[in-house]
Amino acid sequence: MKATMKFCAVLLALLLAGMAMVPCVSAECACHREDMRFQEEFRIVQSDKGTNLLDELGLSRPVNLENTVHLKTYTESKEIADKLLDAINLSDRSDSVIGMYDFGNYQILLISQGESILEVLSDGHTVKSSTRIPILLGEKEISKKPTMISLNEMMENVSVNTHVQLYSTSIVSPESPSMILTLYIVTVTRTDEYRNYFGEIRASLTAKGTFYVEYGSSITGITDLSSYYTTFPYSTCEYSHYTSGVGTTVGQVNAHLKTGSLFARAQIDNWVSCNNWLTTNDGGTTSTWMSGSGDGCTG
User: Rounded CA gap, 191 and 161, in Å?
Assistant: First the structure.
């Protein structure tokens, strides 16, 4: 009798376990497909506090920061900046303005041209322009050891590479040749690559920003150069990127990518930043999961 009762108890437990494994398909069911997805998430952060580039490259920090003419952002100098842009037939390039030095009788407007900077000098009557090529002061590259993940019992990995470059250019005051102002340009690039079991890239997201820095004062401009890459059978579901912090002490570029193939999904979010003391930082997360929808993107 006891053996029969024990057999019945075991049988009942197996039946209940089997019922728990039946997927919920009713619209009135309390569980949702989003809650049922299998997800593994990990975070890779390059640095907790960031790295000061001048210190790391063995360069001297600027002095006498109080006795200088400050670089104004485009928003702060919009009226004069727009007049100078019109004068050189670049009225549609306001988004490329790095900033403007106002010396009183003279103004110098700086405009980004990719690897060069256009300097526009005005005395209120005439306008002259010249091109400056920033000098590379140093660079560094960090490659993190790939982090292994498991998706549907297949081992995959995410690798992270960060590249930082520091440039500078000197601006001479038209009123006092002894006054030399230094503009720093910092380019920070972080690339997160999501690879399959065979080491093939399924998706890649790059957050890249060029930060124009008046040392000790503010970030006067940011150029967003972010990009992404997906390869068959993975498709692009979502992609976005944006900047923040112009006119403040910390600038940042953020990027986001969601990709998928049939039931598999992956999402990458990363960012890069630079502050007014030339301290750079970056970070990011990658999530992978199996969705209940086989359309490659939903869920």
Answer: 5
